[in-house]
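SEQUENCE-TO-STRUCTURE ENTRY
===========================

Backbone structure tokens: a row of integers, each naming the local backbone shape at its residue.

Task: work out the structure tokens from the sequence, keeping to the layout shown below.
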Amino acid sequence: MKKYHGIIPAFYACYDEKGEINPGTVRDFASYLVEKGVQGLYVGGSSGECIYHSVEERKMVLENVMAVARGKIRIIAHVACNNTKDSMSLASHAESLGVDAIASIPPIYFHLPEPAIAKYWNDISSAAPNTDFVIYNIPQLAGVSLTIPLFKEMLKNPRVVAVKNSSMPTQDIQMFKMYGGKDFTVFNGPDEQFVSGRVIGADGGIGGTYAALVNLFLKMDDAVEKNQIELARDIQNAVDAIIYKMCEAKGNLYAVLKEVIRRRTGLYLGSVRAPLYPLVPSDEEIIMETISMIDDAENTFL
């Protein structure tokens, strides 16, 4: 079995009632996912609301995840900030905690040339020289695509072992696998196409809805491994319907996901940090429908 594979939920930001990071809840949430049997956690990414956290807050979250999950599952720490200095600080800190890998999107806002992006990533990697590096390709949000020339340049860095591919075309997964080689890891990013991503070659997935739908994604991945493609497709269709329902809410998707987790497990993860939009009263019906759909899917497929 490859080092990086399977279901790796993107870890959610855990707040108290005042909207501050709650270390105890971070540990409880990490323990919950470890006990569910996931293969890893992706900490400090989009789902973790990283761009709205200070460097010290991001370090606090990772420290508390590692306190309960180190050595039990793979931990990938997303360390990108919109400047190299802070990113390197997070990378060095992550390595000191013993994470399995660090990850980074490209710098956002300014449209930098590819040599500048490569230098940014390599500088971050140099701050964690003994730790694997994962490129996070999410062009729809970062505004920059991982091109094959840039990918080939990054492959010169021996620490670059994987791509978290959140672009929509599954063809991108196939291309990164082809140019990366048989031992290179590619993660499927878009949750709505997990099965198609796995079938075309992704080794596993990192996703924002996994934590709230963890049983279904674990079953889907198992079906793919066993070549039960019809079953996997049926679960994917059910999962997609759930995701589409959650996206109907006026509140941010992560606020919906956290509320679903609270009602189904008792874990209170807080809301979302401004300027992300919290739940509003009219979202109540959507929350209830979502929970019913999850229960129905689990009763059908598990």
